[in-house]
Design a protein that fits this description.
With 325 residues, the chain is α/β, with parallel strands linked by helices. 31% of the residues lie in helices and 19% in strands. The strands form two sheets. Strands 1-4-3-2-5-6 form a six-stranded parallel beta sheet, sandwiched between helices. The protein binds adenosine monophosphate.
């Protein structure tokens, strides 16, 4: 797992899109053009062919876009000639008891965020476009790393996620793909898929974007009542408390984070772990170096996840990102 990479390849030219240019005078700033909208494979093929340059970055989303998504898009915009955003609520990665039917759908607002952030092309297919023959019989297997943490609570989730990511990488013919550190296990598995299966795609991670009070931005935050939202703050607070104890070693980190969570009985914690960022295995007490402090829990009817990269050791603390991909 990694830290945010310097977004551009050495020597790469930043994109000259209007949305990427700071205006000398705001009134003189031309409105960014509306992205091309492709709903079908044919429309995507045609629009993608017009992005003649090979340097295409993709940001894959399930819609209900917020400033976390916008940050991924802006980073991609600043480093690549073209940016494609996919908006697709992938049924394959939702379990039968999960929130597919109530997932927020805000397509017009999503398109506005894409326009403001300088997206060239939005691919927003329906499931029958992505899976024309129904559920695919052949899927990407996440392997053992897909069975732990989120995978334990959401069986099959990561196989479904990787299958659609692979398909969208093929369909968009992207050279780079941007993903949020917010979904740390997802990011790790996508990196592994690209490496293990030789996908010619550079995976770039972007640090978690938070509300001013620390809550990690998420499309699912719209489910939270005002009092749920107060309760949910314990997740990021626990991560910060854990990171503050990083100089004292793993058990101190776990203890400090857990102490915050136990004070909030309305948050039903699924897991709180301090794991190695590559193996997702608990780090032993002697371990010093980078680790992932991750938490998941239910608040009201909503399952939330959050994490912090931390450095364990004498100069320990929270890291914005991991140092190695
Ligand atoms: P989603 O629409 O939730 O599937 O997210 C699409 C992409 O945005 C994924 O790569 C997420 O990790 C990323 N993302 C979601 N929330 C955040 C956030 N708060 N900060 C950074 N990236 C995020």
């Amino acid at each position: 797992m990694t830290a945010a990479q310097p977004a551009a390849q050495p020597g790469a030219q930043p994109a000259a899109h209007p949305a990427a240019q700071p205006a000398a005078h705001p009134a003189a700033q031309p409105a960014p053009p509306t992205p091309v909208l492709a709903r079908t494979r044919d429309e995507l093929r045609e629009a993608r062919a017009r992005l003649d340059d090979g340097d295409v970055a993709v940001v894959m989303t399930m819609g209900a876009l917020h400033q976390g998504h916008a940050t991924l898009i802006r980073q991609a915009r600043a480093a690549h000639q073209h940016v494609v955003v996919t908006i697709f609520l992938n049924p394959l990665q939702f379990g039968p008891k999960e929130d597919l039917s109530r997932y927020p759908r805000t397509f017009d607002a999503d398109l506005q965020i894409c326009t403001d952030a300088g997206v060239d092309l939005v691919f927003a297919p329906t499931p029958d476009v992505v899976y024309p023959e129904g559920d695919p019989g052949v899927r990407i297997s996440a392997g053992p790393l897909g069975d732990v943490l989120e995978g334990q609570s959401r069986p099959g989730h990561f196989d479904g996620m990787l299958t659609v990511v692979a398909k969208l990488m093929h369909l968009t013919r992207c050279s780079a793909a941007y993903f949020g550190q917010k979904d740390a296990q997802q990011l790790l598995l996508i990196r592994r898929m690209c490496r293990d299966l030789d996908f010619p795609v550079r995976v770039v991670s972007v640090p978690t974007v938070r509300e001013p009070d620390g809550l990690a931005m998420s499309s699912r935050n719209t489910y939270l009542t005002p009092s749920d939202r107060e309760t949910a703050l314990c997740l990021s607070a626990a991560l910060r408390a854990g990171a503050a104890a990083a100089g004292e070693g793993p058990s101190a980190v776990r203890r400090a984070a857990r102490a915050v969570l136990v004070r909030e009985p309305l948050a039903l914690v699924d897991y709180l772990v301090l794991v190695h960022p590559d193996t997702l295995e608990d780090v032993p007490e002697w371990y010093r170096g980078e680790a992932l402090l991750a938490v998941a829990g239910r608040v009201g009817t909503t399952r939330l996840i959050d994490n912090l990269p931390v450095l364990l050791g004498p100069d320990g603390g929270a890291l914005e990102t991991f140092s190695q991909p």
